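Continuing from yesterday's entry. The apo prediction looked reasonable, so today I'm repeating it with zinc ion included to see how the binding region is handled. Same sequence as before; SMILES copied from the compound registry.
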Amino acid sequence: MLIRGKCHCGNISFTLTWDPDPKEIPARACDCTFCQKHGGVWTSNPRGALEVSIQEPSRVSRYAFGTETAEFLICARCGIVPVVTSRIDERLYAVVSVNSFENVDPGLLKRAPISFEAEQSDTRLARRKRSWIPDVAIQ
Ligand SMILES: [Zn+2]
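Holo prediction written out below.
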């Protein structure tokens, strides 16, 4: 399946290859302070490939906090956060927001709360390597 998503105005868009077609898509409602304020619900596929395309790079705000190992890509025009990236050992990993999906039946989403607040930094990076999208291109 080719999942398409974008921010509200279209400045940040992405396609996520999800192969084979998903029977369900995990949708993790993160309880970090940023995601609480933003309603962040994320998914990733460790065998997926993500292509992000940005129309106006000057209107993308990159926000990091806490351990500063993840970067939220915020559209500075419409305020939506479609993608989070993390660079680990020279490789770029990512998760995408299920709220920015364009062509996915909401019935496919398996929503569940999740908490990483107690996680140590090295455990966190190891988990991202395991579960985040490992093939990310941004243009
Ligand atoms: Zn936008």
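Comparison notes:
- The two ends are 21 Å apart (CA to CA).
- The mean pLDDT is 95.
Will overlay with the apo model tomorrow.
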